[in-house]
Specification:
Elements (H helix, E strand, L loop, with lengths): L2 H12 L3 H7 L10 H6 L4 H11 L19
Protein name: DUF3046 domain-containing protein
Organism: Microbacterium rhizomatis
InterPro entries: DUF3046
């Protein structure tokens, strides 16, 4: 998962709460950092995404592959 995919997944899943969650929610699974701090520290976006999903009780079926662009139509 790339950083852009992570940010798109957060926006798609959490909508208007995404900015708050990225900047204010402290996640124990990423060392007691906010998602924004974890990204800045160089942690893999996929690990941050999964920690955020676990903290916010996102159903398993919406956790994997989120934020990916659809393949281009030829």
């Amino acid at each position: 998962m790339r950083r852009s995919e992570f940010l798109r997944a957060v926006a798609d899943e959490f909508g208007s709460r995404s900015t708050f969650l990225l900047n204010d929610l402290v996640l124990g699974d990423v060392g007691g950092r906010t998602p924004a701090q974890a990204l800045s520290a160089g942690l893999p976006p996929r690990d941050i995404w999964l920690a955020l999903c676990a903290e916010m009780d996102v159903p398993e079926e919406r956790r994997y592959g989120a934020g990916r662009l659809e393949p281009r139509q030829r």
